[in-house]
From TrEMBL:
EC number of the protein: 2.1.2.11
Reactions accelerated catalytically: (6R)-5,10-methylene-5,6,7,8-tetrahydrofolate + 3-methyl-2-oxobutanoate + H2O = 2-dehydropantoate + (6S)-5,6,7,8-tetrahydrofolate
Name this protein carries in UniProt: 3-methyl-2-oxobutanoate hydroxymethyltransferase
Gene3D superfamilies named in the record: Phosphoenolpyruvate-binding domains
A biological process from GO: pantothenate biosynthetic process
Organism per entry: Australozyma saopauloensis
Amino acid sequence: CARKTVRTIQNLYEQKIPISVVTAWDAITANIADEAQIDTVLVGDSLAMVALGYEDTNALELEDMVHHVRAVNRGNRSSLLVADIPFGSFEESEAQAVRSAITLVKKGKAQAVKIEGGVEMAPTIKKIVQAGVPVMGHIGLAPQKHNTLGGFRLQGNTLQSAVKIVEDCKAIEEAGVFAMVIECVPNKLAKLVTDSVSVPTIGIGAGNAVSGQVLVTADILGMEDKKPAKFVKQYMHFHGQAKLALENYNDEVKSGAYPDPNHHGYKMNSEVLNKVK
Ligand code: KIV
Ligand code: NA
């Protein structure tokens, strides 16, 4: 089916139909999201941790992101394709941010970019939108700023930080975002924001009074052997099942039970075999 666009997301929002977003980092995860008819596939910089084994998202380079966006594009034909702008690729200047956004569109075929930040990023967001690249905002917990925030923790639970989040959301709405991720804030604050802006809010750890939800696919599938964050719902436990399967394979290789020549091999024409001998 035809690829969804920012227009599709707008239509869902207007019809009050919740918007589904998941992350993808390669063709396999992108294809699963495609077949599950997920509205938006986000090549989140969480791929730095999930797929590349980094401690946080900060080491990811723009070229790394392009590489993964291209793979996701090849694996997914229907979801709106949004790419994160990595840490270090937009903070220096508006020009740097516009250049990075355009690179993700030109080289990765992203249809939109996501950028972390509120009031301080609003002028930059405006420039990217003016350049013709739709922008998804990202408010609340900003993982790229975990060094400043002192970790990955709930945001907006004090008066000062709640007021800041509302201001941030209004500023980026004004700057022209087509949607905004709201990460790790109390449910009621996410509702308040959702009621006070007129673009979709995509929650992660923000309750259900928002316009849509996003989760990291590795979390949904239980791909890692670790306790997930409170807001995650694991829909399967891939890690445990996959580990059992590989242990089983290992045992069968060692014992010779796999491959079974009658099922997993190819028969040879006996005349040819005799001549080869
Ligand atoms: O990088 C990411 O996966 C994200 C989502 C969790 C919103 O930014
Ligand atoms: Na991200």
